[in-house]
Amino acid sequence: QVQLVESGGGLVQAGGSLRLSCAASGRTFSNYGMGWFRQAPGKEREFVAAISWMVGSTSYADSVKGRFTSSRNNAKNTVSLQMNSLKPEDTAVYYCAAKYRAPGVPGVAYDYWGQGTQVTVSS
């Protein structure tokens, strides 16, 4: 089992920045690929970013490319999502997810999920 806890959400004005963190416990963190997803009210959950196990290669949804950056710290068992130039359409609950030895690409079926953290961007 892997336990995931997100933090760092909040209310920010358009154009601002937030940094989300996801703390993992329960297994060797470096063996897990991580994903970030978001779900806005009335919408389906969507892929935001992925970071591969161990070396941390990344991929991003087109809607956030160039604005969001994901990184991992295997020594601290954390993965982060730096979000810059935020837009009102980025408002959602953000989730991190984990899968054993997953690549950092879209389309991964993650096994473990956090509880989510709310991000609200005001116009």
Short structural summary:
With 123 residues, the chain is mostly beta strands. It is built from no helices and eleven strands. The model has no long low-confidence stretch (mean pLDDT 96).
Task: Write the H/E string, N to C.
Answer: EEEEEEEEEEE
- Outline, from the CA principal axes? globular
Count of helix runs:
0
**In what range is the share of β-strand residues?**
over 45%
Structural class given helices, strands, pairing? mainly beta
Helix content: under 10%
Main sheet, how many strands, which sense, barrel? 7 strands, mixed
Rg on CA atoms, Å: 13 Å
Distance between the termini: 40 Å
Give a count of the beta strands, DSSP E runs of length 2 or more: 11
How would you state the average pLDDT, rounded? Answer: 96
- Uncertain parts: none
What this model shows, in words?
With 123 residues, the chain is mainly beta. It is built from no helices and 11 strands. Strands 2, 4, 5, 6, 9, 10 and 11 form a 7-stranded mixed β-sheet that branches.
Task: Detail the topology: elements first, then pairings.
Layout: E1 3-7, E2 10-13, E3 18-25, E4 32-39, E5 46-51, E6 58-60, E7 68-73, E8 78-83, E9 92-100, E10 112-113, E11 117-122
Parallel strand pairs: 2-11
Antiparallel strand pairs: 1-3, 3-8, 4-5, 4-9, 5-6, 7-8, 9-10, 9-11
